[in-house]
Amino acid sequence: MPRKPLRQREKPAVPPSAPSRELDVFPNPSPDRDYVIRFDVPEFTCICPLTGQPDFARFAIEIVPDRLCVELKSLKMYFWSYRNEGAFHEKVTNAIADDLVAAISPRFLRIRADWFVRGGIGTHITVEHRRKGWKPAEAVVLPAAG
User: Fold this and answer.
1) 17-21-26-28 Cα dihedral, nearest 10 degrees
2) Is 12 contained in some domain?
3) Is 48 an active-site residue?
4) How high is the pLDDT of residue 35?
5) Which residues are bridge partners to 121 per DSSP?
6) Is the pLDDT of residue 15 over 70?
7) Between helices 72-80 and 89-104, what is the axis angle to 10°?
């Protein structure tokens, strides 16, 4: 049986999405209630500005939204946009917080960035934003069951 010739691409494949610094938003469906949205970003990468080597981190984001929420796909593309950018851990973590605050003006935002070990040192950065005058509701403490 004759072999089929291999099919070669004329052009490189075009990904369905591309990195972007634009954060899309949508109206908060429950703006009269404080609630927490948590995002876990386990595969963040950027470039060390000194060595050119890749840096890896896991981001945990907690948001108490006000009138707007951030759309997940745009958040994914936003994080992807840092992949080839050289930046210090502290700058990246604070820039992400600033961009989220600018996009959605949350009542509260906390970002925890756990940067993987480089040169024997792991870096952990926490950034918080609290809208002036906003206070969280008092925590509810329930008795232990049993």
Assistant:
1) 130
2) no
3) yes
4) 95
5) 118
6) no
7) 150
Place of tokens 């940067």: 115
Q: What pTM was computed for the model?
A: 0.84
Q: Is 33 part of a structural domain of the chain?
A: yes
41 is in which domain, residue-wise? 25-130
End-to-end alpha carbon distance in the chain: 74
3-state secondary structure of 89: helix
Report, as an integer, the average pLDDT of 53-78: 96
- Residue 127, Cα to own-chain centre: how many angstroms? 12
Q: How many domains does the chain have?
A: 1
Read off the CATH number of the domain in which 73 is found.
3.30.1130.10
Amino acid at 124: H
Asked if 55 is an active-site residue, the reply is yes
Q: What is the rounded CA–CA span in Å between residue 77 and residue 23?
A: 8
pLDDT score, position 13: 60
Range 87-103 average pLDDT: 96
Say which of 32, 34, 46, 55 is annotated catalytic: 55
Instruction: Give the active site residue among 24, 34, 48, 99.
Output: 48
Does 117 map to a domain? yes
Give the mean pLDDT of the chain: 91
Do the domain assignments include residue 123?
yes
